């Protein structure tokens, strides 16, 4: 299987004050997968994150939510990937995406960081390897780049939050398709989804 994913990372900032902020959307996907599989994400200091292990679609899959701050996410990802000898192309990183509206999520393989500090650090700590998968969860854009920092660190209004969560739920179902079939099939389904 070409699209083997062994590590699914959900980007977030640590601490209860950030738990429901837009920047933590990536972690919601990993938390939902853990919930469905009835496992608890446990803190593991050697990987600087919360981790769990599941068997999903017949594959061994590690879940990781870094407990570093967003701009240091790569420290956590690189530590776990190195220990388990997981190649960058076997990693999927779920993250918030300013360039997509709430309720939309997309899979992508490779590419730049698009100004996302979590992705920037992961690329750097993986030896500038950009070949990992991304699950981009739309959070919308505040309209001006000067407003981005405050925007990602605040909670979305209830309706937008519900749409982001619907897209995250659909993404979890599509990860299942990706693991069982391939990226193209998963993209076909996820990329036509739009939360109501």
Automatic annotation (TrEMBL):
Gene Ontology molecular function terms on file: peptidyl-tRNA hydrolase activity; tRNA binding
InterPro entries in UniProt: Pept_tRNA_hydro, Pept_tRNA_hydro_CS, Pept_tRNA_hydro_sf
Primary location recorded for the protein, binned into one broad class: cytoplasm
Signal peptide annotation: none
Gene Ontology CC annotations of this record: cytoplasm
Catalytic activity: an N-acyl-L-alpha-aminoacyl-tRNA + H2O = an N-acyl-L-amino acid + a tRNA + H(+)
GO BP annotations listed: protein quality control for misfolded or incompletely synthesized proteins; rescue of stalled ribosome
Site (Stabilizes the basic form of H active site to accept a proton): 96
Xref: Pfam families: Pept_tRNA_hydro
Top-rank taxon, per record: Bacteria
Cellular compartments annotated: Cytoplasm
Protein name, as recorded: Peptidyl-tRNA hydrolase
């Amino acid at each position: 299987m070409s699209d083997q994913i062994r590590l699914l990372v959900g980007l977030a900032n640590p601490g209860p004050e950030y738990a429901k902020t837009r920047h933590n959307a990536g972690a919601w996907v990993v938390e939902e997968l853990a919930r469905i599989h009835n496992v608890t994400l446990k803190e593991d200091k050697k990987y600087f994150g919360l981790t769990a292990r599941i068997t999903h679609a017949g594959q061994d899959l590690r879940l990781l939510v870094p407990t570093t701050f967003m701009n240091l996410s790569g420290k956590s990802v690189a530590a776990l990937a190195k220990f388990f000898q997981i190649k960058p192309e076997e990693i999927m990183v779920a993250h918030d995406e300013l360039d997509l509206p709430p309720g939309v999520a997309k899979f992508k393989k490779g590419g730049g960081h698009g100004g996302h500090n979590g992705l920037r650090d992961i690329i750097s700590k993986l030896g500038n390897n950009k070949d990992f998968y991304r699950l981009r969860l739309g959070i919308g854009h505040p309209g001006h780049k000067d407003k981005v920092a405050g925007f990602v660190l605040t909670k979305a209004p209830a309706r937008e939050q519900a749409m982001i969560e619907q897209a995250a739920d659909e993404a979890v179902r599509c990860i299942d398709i990706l693991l069982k079939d391939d990226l193209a099939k998963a993209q076909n389904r996820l990329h036509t989804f739009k939360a109501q």
